[in-house]
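Sample intake sheet
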Amino acid sequence: MSARDPSGWSDAPAPDAPDSIASELASRIAAPPAVPDEPIDWAALAATWQREAEVRGPGAEAAVLLCEAARIHEEELREPRVALALARRAAEADPTYRPGLRAARRLAGDAGDHALVASLLAAEEALTLEPAARGELSLARSRALAAAGRPEAARQA
């Protein structure tokens, strides 16, 4: 209880109370970082996300789960073909989910599938309202179509 506030609800700490936040912070700094006892089974985690996406059906939730499974296959398991297949599924599950479209586009570009890149750019362009951004996407789609061996389609894009 504070001398100024007889109710005991004062925000000011009692003069002899230790600074609990500072002591907690000091103990956290001194502690070693937390490391899991066992390594993460990335393949099992990715499979779990895939099964959960199947249960949820088409939509934003499935797209998010499939994107995460794709990320695991790309970054942790080093399986870019599987990652691309999952990213494509994410884009199909929710064609308005931009991170899914972008992940699929990036992976397709890495795989040299320029026709798929162009298709994904067209989908993202359809979602984009800002004229400057639409123009950039259209130019990128035109370049992807040219790289895919479709110069006539590239000129029309």
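Comment: The helical segments are 20-30, 42-56, 60-76, 80-93, 98-111, 114-127, 131-147, 151-156. DSSP finds eight helices and no strands in the chain.
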